[in-house]
Specification:
The protein is an alpha+beta fold. Helix content is 32%, strand content 33%. It is elongated, with a radius of gyration of 32 Å.
Length: 154
């Protein structure tokens, strides 16, 4: 084989090897498609923040990327690496959503249903006020009794 033919074969082999690596690298990423809706009526949530955090082998978040939903509640990200991905969704008037997903397909479609905020609980709510008033009443009585006991005899 002449030196020119060897060089051509080497060049073609290198080109095929490069193409194979490029195809393999493309297979290791996914096109993500998100739909964010209300859980109680299925209507889209517009302008929700969809935050993506890749998780490494040690379980730690590596960086992040923020997306915003459109008027139809849709957003997407092309080229997400395969592996564990933590997805958080924040939207005004809804509970914060968070879940880890295993990304292992060329296209991944994820529907997220946001819930309304739950009721908040407090030790100062109306249910406890009745018992609090009862305690205040007995405290007043104890205070009056102590005043009467501390008065000088007549």
């Amino acid at each position: 084989m002449t030196p020119m033919k060897r060089l051509a074969v080497l060049f073609i082999t290198a080109l095929l090897l490069f193409a194979a690596v490029a195809v393999t690298a493309e297979d290791k990423s996914s096109d993500l498609k998100f739909l964010v809706i209300r859980d109680y009526n299925g209507k889209p949530v517009r302008n929700a923040s969809v935050i993506l955090h890749p998780i490494d082998n040690e379980g730690k978040q590596r960086g992040g990327y923020q997306l915003k939903t459109d008027a139809e509640g849709k957003t997407g990200f092309d080229g997400a690496p395969y592996g564990l991905l933590r997805i958080q969704v924040l939207a005004q008037g809804f509970q914060t959503y968070g879940e880890d997903f295993q990304i292992n397909q060329p296209t991944t479609e994820i529907t997220i249903k946001l819930k309304r905020p739950g009721g908040q609980y407090s030790i100062y709510d109306d249910k406890n006020q009745g018992s609090s008033e009862n305690n205040q009443g007995s405290d007043k009585k104890d205070s009056e009794d102590s005043k009467n006991n501390n008065q000088a005899p007549k």
